Amino acid sequence: MRWSFWLAIVFVFSFFTTCRATHIFKDIPAQHWARQSVERLDHLGITSGYQDGTFRGRKSLSRYELALYLSNLEHIQSKQLAQLYQKIQDLQSEINHLKSHP
After folding, report:
1. Contacts for 11 with CB less than 8 Å, ≥ 6 apart
2. Which end of the chain is more exposed for a tag (fewer CB within 10 A), N or C?
């Protein structure tokens, strides 16, 4: 039964690492303290910066932009949870199949 636990763990981690490609923001220096965090938010689809390829980290955040980021976060979480639930169901079906056919 232990192998099924590890298989489920691998399945879950592989699910959460399949996100979209990250942009390189031309206005964030390579050694900037927040670069990794900004790239992670971009990778997750929460923000994509501006159309000119900049992030504009010193610009004040508007309420519209905050609403967009929070909406993107909620949408991504809902979608990921639905996909994860489906994968868990599929994995449970596979485990049940393997149990019944030793």
Report:
1. 87, 91
2. C
What predicted TM-score, i.e. pTM, was given to this entire model?
Answer: 0.55
**CA 61 from centroid of its chain's CA atoms:** 22
- From residue 37, alpha-carbon distances to 28, 30, 34, 57, 101 in Å are 11, 12, 5, 12, 46
Rounded Cα gap, residues 71 and 80, in angstroms: 14
Q: 58-71 b/e with 16+ CB inside 10 Å = b?
A: eeeeeeeeeeeeee
Q: Where are the alpha helices (DSSP H) in 17-62?
A: 35-44
Interval 53-74: pLDDT, tens: 999 999 998 999 989 888 888 8
Which residue reads 């976060």 in tokens? 73
What is d(CA 70, CA 59) in angstroms, rounded to the nearest whole number?
18
